[in-house]
Design goal:
2 strands, mainly alpha, 130 residues, two-stranded antiparallel ribbon, single chain, elongated
Length: 130
């Protein structure tokens, strides 16, 4: 299809920190979604389509943060709790491997000295992920 550039939608994308050229008709909507049970359509007013709208400025900051390696998204308490639990299971799995696998233990012992040193290393990795 030979769609023309949608200058208004392209300007909105650029204002949000995304270098995207929009073609043809564009539908813009607002919704609240926690990637779990919550999904709700919200009003989107003509004033929300302004290039200096608060949400546009926030989107720009978030997108800039993402390009510099940061994480600007939000997570729910439920998601964070599950992530923490998964990380703890990972630590326990690695410690069980230390206890039961002599080859793995030798490898980790060479680098970390002891089981306590290895566990401290694992806990530091977990802390960095949180």
């Amino acid at each position: 299809k030979k769609l023309s550039v949608n200058a208004r939608a392209t300007a909105l994308c650029v204002a949000c920190g995304k270098s995207i050229q929009m073609l043809g008709d564009v539908f813009v909507a607002r919704a609240q979604d926690d990637n779990n049970d919550l999904y709700k359509r919200l009003d989107f007013y003509a004033s929300d389509f302004l290039l200096d709208a608060e949400w546009v400025q926030l989107a720009k900051l978030q997108n800039e943060s993402m390009t510099t390696g940061g994480y600007a998204g939000t997570v729910s308490a439920k998601q964070l709790s599950k992530f923490e639990l998964d990380l703890e299971k990972w630590v326990q799995l690695k410690l069980t491997e230390w206890d039961g696998d002599a080859t793995a233990r030798k490898k980790h012992e060479k680098k970390h000295g002891s089981r306590e040193g290895y566990e401290a290393h694992l806990r530091a990795k977990v802390k960095a992920k949180l």
